[in-house]
Amino acid sequence: MQTFNPPVRTLMGPGPSDVYPRVLEALSRPTIGHLDPAFIRMMDELKELLQYAFQTRNAMTMPVSAPGSDGMETCFVNLVEPGDKVIVCQNGVFGGRMKENVERCGGIAVMVEDSWGDAIDINKLEDALKAHDDARIVAMVHAETSTGAQSDVATLVKLAHQHDCLTIVDTVTSLGGTPVKVDEWGIDAIYSGSQKCLSCTPGIAPVSFNERALEKIRDRQTKVQSWFMDLNLVMGYWGEGAKRAYHHTAPINALYALHEALLILNEEGLEEAWARHRKNHLALRAGLEAMGLSFIVKEPDRLPQLNAVTIPAGVDDASVRSRLLNEYNLEIGAGLGALAGKVWRIGLMGHASRAENILLCVGALESVLGDMGAEINTGVALPAMQKALA
Amino acid sequence: MQTFNPPVRTLMGPGPSDVYPRVLEALSRPTIGHLDPAFIRMMDELKELLQYAFQTRNAMTMPVSAPGSDGMETCFVNLVEPGDKVIVCQNGVFGGRMKENVERCGGIAVMVEDSWGDAIDINKLEDALKAHDDARIVAMVHAETSTGAQSDVATLVKLAHQHDCLTIVDTVTSLGGTPVKVDEWGIDAIYSGSQKCLSCTPGIAPVSFNERALEKIRDRQTKVQSWFMDLNLVMGYWGEGAKRAYHHTAPINALYALHEALLILNEEGLEEAWARHRKNHLALRAGLEAMGLSFIVKEPDRLPQLNAVTIPAGVDDASVRSRLLNEYNLEIGAGLGALAGKVWRIGLMGHASRAENILLCVGALESVLGDMGAEINTGVALPAMQKALA
Fold first, then answer.
1. Which of A39, A329, A38, A46 is CA-nearest to residue A200?
2. Which chain B residue has its CA at the smallest distance from A65's CA?
3. Segment (H or E) for A169
4. Which of B147, B167, B248, B315 sits at a 20 to 30 Å CA gap from A293?
5. Cβ-defined contact of A248 to B69 (cutoff 8 Å)
6. Which of B235, B267, B299 is the last residue of a domain?
């Protein structure tokens, strides 16, 4: 057995995305202790950088020492008590995972379902809130990674608050790619992941909780069922004015990496990052549509960073992805759940949202699909992209 | 705000330990996808390397994508069902954390307590097993990081099995430093951490479960309360013969690092690593005792990798540690829990278990303590260590 030398890929799936070289370099800096004063100063900066990314002044803004799925669970185990009724808006895989979380916390999940690929329907949520006036929480996915649909979180949260519900919002795929405004939208609890539009390595989940959410946690009648995720304990290490007392050993180097990724976002500016994601999405779309591929999400609801397109009839999904990987070192994503085998998910996330990636992806797809005899338009994608990128 | 350039420290606390340079280098290699065939081959190697480290053939041997505390919780949430009676042997901080885990899973914890610094008393466990013949599980810490005491896990596990109990064993601080023999000792569920004697960066928890443990998980009447830690789901990605289906996004680069750390252990050989930890412990001990410091753990129960010594009377704990850090870039550990302010914990873990670290640590301690007017013997530690290292 030998040291593992990974191939160099271009990562245009649903995450992990291409990681910034500066982030990889930061990752390999000397490890120091989790209570070292130098590390504690870095933690303070990291919190501030996360507040900027989330557009919030929430003191309880921190990185969970585990992947995005654990960020989700951190929100649910802290906020949901046995017997709590939670309205879950589902329009893809991750709403289903929220339901699992609610039930495993002893809560009652009321599902509001929309078709996969659609945004969350505001009227359906309103009906559910009226029908369940004992609901305590509304949970929703801002950017559904399984479909590429974006929902109107600002309006949904407002509605939830009118019915006295707290809100939990999944922004794993949106943070850094499209606007996420925690304070302006009034989001009570939010989680994300390091490996999407932040272009950091996978494994860390940024979260933020406002005062209303913390109040519910403080008022709990029962202990949080997870020791590792119990914010009452984690706050002793990460909390505002905390003594930075040992709770668990923080993943030191992974936090150097997140600090660097957030610094890059800060240097570029959020507005500029959002504009870049939008512009590059339009160029990718121009190329894919010229080739004859179609998006599954209606135009106004499309996420610029996650492009789900229908696999042309008669084309073998796995063979195409395998050829892209082997011949071009290019990773695009398969469909997930109900969409497995039906769509490809092409990510333009963070550092992967670049002109060169778009030309590579569309060019390689055209070559492979053409070679396999798929019915696509050839020779027209490149000029269409050039025009959009100009 | 600027990029974070950590100081270069020598890490001789209770972990993280000094990280192997090869591990830091592996960490910064290009990120690839969690379903990339190249990554999946690496996962298979990683499992095999972990089996060697744990000395087991358990198919369910894998790294949890989170710190050691979450590895602990993974064992408890999967094995403990509401109402299950669990005997927890406590002789330090981490037995207390096990109690929290049992109770948060709805289990009933029966505590068998020993003094901090003592090994677990086999007779006390036997009495508890006789008094509680409805107990289902016995949980114990092999190497108590808070005190530096090692317990006789082989005998304790045998006893538990005689009373039809499964066993959960914490080897966070022992794995790679002193013998851990999962199959020979019959351990049913075990967890460890990446950042101690494996000298990898913090953030990953190796775990292993035998067939008996998996049977209990399969026979559960209730769902595992954590979605993220539910082995029934995680096995779809990490399990034997699994399709490596998406569960959560694995912390890719952190797993490169663990692969490299385990490769180094494999190259050195377990027996050789254990012997090195033992030899260096004796040298450190020679220096510290010559200086007049005393160990809190009785000689036969001492962990070579975690040396807890009493702080000399009249000496200010924090000032000494602060001076070691600022003047020598040396981190040693403070006391934890009941031992806070009373002991220092000096780690000789993995890559930190080297002759040069011992001379630095004892030399720096002698300088700082001497300068502060503490009652220690000066000028005798160095020759004592030289003799032990010869």
1. A46
2. B66
3. strand A166-170
4. B248
5. yes
6. B267
For residues A322 and A343, give the distance between their C-alpha atoms in angstroms, rounded to a whole number.
15
Q: What is the pLDDT tens value at each position of chain A, 390 positions in all?
A: 999 999 999 999 999 999 999 999 999 999 999 999 999 999 999 999 999 999 999 999 999 999 999 999 999 999 999 999 999 999 999 999 999 999 999 999 999 999 999 999 999 999 999 999 999 999 999 999 999 999 999 999 999 999 999 999 999 999 999 999 999 999 999 999 999 999 999 999 999 999 999 999 999 999 999 999 999 999 999 987 778 899 999 999 999 999 999 999 999 999 999 999 999 999 999 999 999 999 999 999 999 999 999 999 999 999 999 999 999 999 999 999 899 999 999 999 999 999 999 999 999 999 999 999 999 999 999 999 999 999
| B254 interaction partners in chain A (CB closer than 8 Å) | 201, 203, 251, 254
Whether A347 contacts A145, CB under 8 Å:
no
Query: CB-CB: which of A3, A225, A228 is closest to B263?
Result: A3
User: Do B218 and B95 sit in the same domain of this protein?
Assistant: yes
Residues B157 and B166: their CA atoms lie apart, in Å, by 8
Backbone dihedral region for residue B228 (phi beyond 0: left; psi -120 to 50: alpha; all else: beta): alpha
CB atoms near residue A207 (< 10 Å): 27
- Give the span between the Cα atoms of B49 and B269, in whole angstroms: 11
Which residue's structure tokens are 């030998």? A2
State whether B119 and B258 are in the same domain: yes
Do both A93 and A173 map to the same domain?
Answer: yes
Q: Crossing angle, helix A317-328 and helix A355-371, to 10 degrees?
A: 120
Same domain, A239 and A195: yes
With CA atoms as reference, the chain B residue closest to A12 would be: B33
> Residue B335 falls within a domain, yes or no?
yes
Q: Count the domains in chain A.
A: 2
Q: Do B251 and A202 touch (CB under 8 A)?
A: yes
Last residue of a domain, one of A242, A267, A292: A267
Residue B254: domain span: 21-267
Same domain (yes/no): A48, A161: yes
Residue B15 lies in a domain: no
Angle at A82 between CA A170 and CA A169, to 5 degrees: 10
State the alpha helices, DSSP H only, in B81-228: 93-104, 122-131, 153-162, 182-185, 211-218
**Which CATH number fits the domain that encloses residue A198?**
3.40.640.10
Do A193 and A53 belong together in one domain?
Answer: yes
Output the six-digit token pair for A386.
Answer: 């050039």
ipTM of this complex: 0.98
Give the residue from chain A lying closest to B10, CA to CA. A32
The gap from C-alpha A71 to its chain's centroid, in whole angstroms, comes to 11
Side-chain-side CA neighbours of B42 within 13 Å: the count stands at: 28
B224 and B239 together in one domain: yes
User: What CATH number is given to the structural domain containing A370?
Assistant: 3.90.1150.10
B184 in Cβ contact with B59 (< 8 Å):
no
Element (DSSP H or E) covering residue A388 = helix A381-389
Both A82 and A150 in a single domain? yes
